[in-house]
Sequence to fold (309 residues):
Amino acid sequence: MRVAVVGVNGRLGRALSTALEDAPFTGTRGPIGWDQPDLDLDTLDAASAGSFLDAERPEVVIHTAAWTDVDGCARDPELAMRRNGTAAGELAAACARRGIDMVFISTNEVFDGRRTDGVGYAPGDERNPINPYGAAKAEAERLTIAAFEADGARGRLGIVRTSWLHGPPGGDFPAKIAAAAIRAKAAGEPLRAVADEIGAPTYTPDLAEAIVELIAADPITDGPARTAIHHLVNGGRVSRAGWAREVLRATRIDVDVVDVPGSTWQRASTPPSWAVLEPTPLPSGEPMRPWQEAFADAVPALLRGLTGG
Fold:
């Protein structure tokens, strides 16, 4: 099976490339990798997307590319919509016309995060984004679904929502928290960490393996439906502050942590306070492992990044 990864040099794209190289169904050539500057989200349309598809002839396209700077998206919502919304719709239209299956990576931020019942968002819950990043991703969901449900469309669409991604090559929440803790300790100050944002940290290698499992078992959609939404996250939930404490425990950085509200810092973007997704079953029936176990696998690389080793 020919599988193309759009955004192959991103955090999830790299993990997917590795997982697909080990998957027997991709054959000896492995996955196809697309990224900038050849495939530019700022200019992508159905014609340019079609030229890539016709040249490589994939059977499945996994669209991971996105502008993930949520504050940058808030400062330029039109560009955010172009990169994270319209481009996905154009790619989906090109895939649907050719009968190519597509997996689109979305986010918990299509929801407003205001629910207070302690229940994670389910795939069928109404989208209601509260920031431009989430609004663009919600529009991408709408456009990709419309493309695959249009008259004459072929192929199937799987939307994969996830949350709080971390993993190689660094520069993620654990790395930023560890660096901030080191600075706080040097200044003789506590580390302030947000206590009123709750979510499920998700390790990109785990998410990549789950997506590969979906493709391998052929349940991008269930039954005759052309589209389906999957929630793929590591198990459990934690506040940003709780995750920060786990980072400090794992890295043995001895500094006090003080819980603060997210409003402590002024930001261009407003993140959802409740970022919890209700996981959907994988074909194996096994859930993704708890976030703590996944984070433990990320610690060695985190430590190497801190020491420069």
